[in-house]
Each structure stands twice: as C-alpha cells, then as structure tokens.
Amino acid sequence: MAVTFLSMDITDFNKAVETALRYFTLQGIEHADLRRALGQYVLELFAEGETRPLMLANRAIERLKRQLEVELELSLETMDVVFNHA
Prior knowledge:
By secondary structure, the protein is mainly alpha-helical.
C-alpha cells in the first residue's frame, strides 16, 4: 500500500493564517499565541483534505472560536466553584 504525502504551499499557508489572524484582530482579540494556534489548525485542516486558503482560514477561525468558548466556560465554572463554595 502506497502512502501519499501532501505538501502545502507556504504562500497558501501564510495567506490562511494571516486571513484568520486579521479576523481576530478586527474583533479586538490579540494574543501572541493566536498565530501558533491558527497555524496548527490550518495544518490539521490541510491534513484532513482542505486546500483552499480562504476555507482553511474560515475553518481555523471556527475551531479556535470553539476552543476559546470552551476555555472561557471552564474558567467561569472554576470561578463559580471557588467563590461560591469557599
């Protein structure tokens, strides 16, 4: 069985990450780790078969927004436990 490796064009990768990063910047969300997280999501999505830079950006945005929502919810639950049961 042959294994096929896909290679992502660095220009497409950068375009996807920069597009997604611009979205968060316009939303007023800026953090040093955003670029790394978005880059990781873009690579994962590419490995799943998506190759179009704009779709990579859109889907990376969706995934990171979901991650941030989950982290916020967990943080709020933790604060609730700490302050209401202290």
